[in-house]
Amino acid sequence: MTALWVSNGGVQQIAGGGADAISASGRLTGLWASDLLLLQVLLMARIPLVERAFGQDRLARWHRWSGFTSFWLMITHIVLITLGYAGATHANAFAELWDMIWTYPGMLLATAGTAALLMVVMTSIRMARRRLRYESWHLLHLYAYLGAGLALPHQLWTGTDFIASAASTVYWWSLYAVSAGAVLTYRIAIPAWRSWRHRLVVSHITAEGPGLTSVYLSGHRLDRLPVRAGQFFQWRFLDGYGWSRAHPYSLSATPHGQMLRITVKDLGDGSARVASLRPGTRALIEGPYGKLSGEVYRGGPVVLLACGIGITPLLALLGDLPYSPGQATLVYRARGESDIAFRDELEWFAANRGVRRVFLFGKRAERPSWLPAEYADYADADALRRVAPQIAISDVYICGPDAWAEAARTAARAAGTPADQVHTELFSW
Q1: Which of 77, 78, 301, 365 could lock 394 by a disulfide, CB 3.0 to 4.6 Å apart?
Q2: Contact (Cβ atoms closer than 8 angstroms) between residue 406 and residue 369
Q3: What's the structural domain count of the chain?
């Protein structure tokens, strides 16, 4: 992409100075912004090979970084192009911007696209996300696709570096086609086909504790559904208003081809509705996603660190991993005894598969730590070595809130666990 800009005289224009240099810089930042915008789309297109290679957590971080970088490059592009054109015609910059919007082909659409992307960026700032419901954030985030689509006409009609050569045209059309094709294939076509083929319906629901509900789902040929313990789906239940907004829930039991189970904590409007689902309600799925699965297990000792609702994928993994008696240690962080979910199942794993269970109760420590406040005087890594003496040679699976999971991951690494043996799944958006 930068090479195409260079071949179209970008370096010479920069060297020449003046308004042409400003315009050339604006074109380059616009090209970078477009590249990163389409990279964002690809990162979250749920391409199976990419998901398995990097994991949804890492892809989401890259998506976020590239998104903010793309946005500021786009703003820089607008400012530099406006100043460059205004300088070339000795016009007022604001008048030049107004003239470009109203007279240049595709610029009205590009302006609408910029407004859509601005809305997405503003609602992606951490402070704004905390004030939004997940359902609202998810709906607003879809406008990123609209912003990318509305930017295309002005790039192809007036973008010098898009149409200057056959190579430029092939490059940009190919990039747009691959991005759009990935979204249509992996976010729409395959989920629609799997939902139609497997015809999942709610079999029954069970209350697991305060604000915690398990949903059991039956369907057609579930043995052909390519899902492993530890993975999650995006779920839509056809139970009325709001069905179109998907929610990510992990399997909380090892899939065995007959039935699936998810367990949901009441954290918002969408999750609260789960407790009122009726048997026979249809479910649409998108997935499976996530690399927190047995594919990465090397055999031998395994340590599973769960916090709160993070127990769900780890419970499924306990039933799936081929560890020997005494090789598995589950560390379960909760606020109190009453918050322990699946106690009967955990006792079964202890009695029948030799799983060691370590429960840690109490309020959060005042410092960043995976330990509760009661044990905050202990060093995180030292405490982990005490509860899991084989931590340095174990596969470690971690699932829970962002800050807790990061503290647990840091403790595992400090305790000697190699980076490629620490596997995480974060519950965040």
Answers
A1: 301
A2: no
A3: 3
Domain boundary among 289, 308, 331: 289
Return the DSSP state at 287: E
Residue-wise pLDDT for 246-301, tens only, equals: 888 999 999 988 899 999 987 665 667 888 899 999 999 998 988 888 888 988 99
pLDDT digits (tens, 9 = 90+) for 176-229: 889 889 999 999 999 999 999 999 999 999 988 778 899 999 999 999 999 999
The burial of 166, by beta-carbon neighbours within 10 Å (0-12 exposed, 13-18 middle, 19 or more buried), is given as: exposed
The model's pLDDT over 77-112, given as tens digits with 9 standing for 90+, comes to 888 988 888 888 888 888 888 888 888 877 877 888
Same-domain pairing of 330 and 271: no
Rounded Cα distance between 83 and 68, Å, is 23
Q: Are residues 44 and 150 in the same domain?
A: yes
Task: Examine residue 44 and state whether it is found in any structural domain, yes or no.
Answer: yes
Please give the model's pTM, rounded to 2 decimal places.
0.82
**Does 130 score more than 70 pLDDT?**
no
DSSP summary character for residue 185: I
Looking up residue 299, the CATH number of its domain turns out to be 3.40.50.80
Query: What is the distance of C-alpha 410 from the center of its chain?
Result: 21
Residues 265 and 311 both lie in one domain: no
- Domain containing 403 equals 294-426
The secondary structure of residue 122, as a DSSP letter, is H
Measured between alpha carbons, how far is residue 406 from residues 258, 287, 338 in Å? Answer: 35, 25, 25
- Among 263, 255, 249, residue whose Cα is nearest residue 207: 263
Question: Quick one: residue 211, left, alpha or beta (phi over 0 = left, psi -120 to 50 = alpha)?
Answer: left
